[in-house]
Amino acid sequence: MNVLLISGLAVITPDADASARFYVGTLGLTLTDDDGYRHSNEIQGVKHFGVWPLSAAAQACFGTDEWPAGTPAPTATIDFDVDDVAAAAAEMETAGYTLIHSARTEPWGQTVARAMSPEGVLITLAYTPWFRE
């Protein structure tokens, strides 16, 4: 098998309206509504795919190898590269979403802020320099 690219990524939600407010209203994605299934073929391709251990995600978000017991553990992550991570994170908070952590620059040079989507997907707002070269 020769995987050429990730051709699709979709969250599965129990609350389509809450997810629409998050992805369309807050993140500003232009999605077509086909009888409740919102989608787009116009968002630029995925630059990274990974299988991330929960312990590593916990370390990245909370600085510990254990995901906090009071916070539902994510089963996926989506990274959205943005022009200004701090401004995007502020927009997300203004829209009523709680950040897991505010904008910070990681040791490898990527600037990130993280939140959870209504479906429990870990959302990263990022500025990834090597994807912009």
Walkthrough of the structure:
It is globular, with a radius of gyration of 15 Å. The mean pLDDT is 90. It is built from three helices and six strands, in the order H-E-E-H-E-H-E-E-E. It is of the alpha+beta class. The two termini are 30 Å apart. The protein has a four-stranded mixed β-sheet, covered by helices on one side. The protein has a single domain (16-131), classed as Roll (2,3-Dihydroxybiphenyl 1,2-Dioxygenase, domain 1), CATH 3.10.180.
The CATH class, by name, is Alpha Beta
CATH topology: 2,3-Dihydroxybiphenyl 1,2-Dioxygenase, domain 1
The ordered string of helix (H) and strand (E) elements is HEEHEHEEE
Inertia-based shape: globular
Contiguous helical run count: 3
Total strands: the figure is 6
Main sheet characteristics:
4 strands, mixed
Strand content: 15-25%
CATH 4th-level superfamily: 2,3-Dihydroxybiphenyl 1,2-Dioxygenase, domain 1
Q: Assign a percent range to the helix content.
A: 10-25%
Biggest sheet strand line-up: 3-6-5-4
Classify the secondary structure makeup into a structural class. Answer: alpha+beta
Annotation keywords:
133 residues; alpha+beta; 2,3-Dihydroxybiphenyl 1,2-Dioxygenase, domain 1; two-stranded antiparallel ribbon; 3 helices; 23% helix
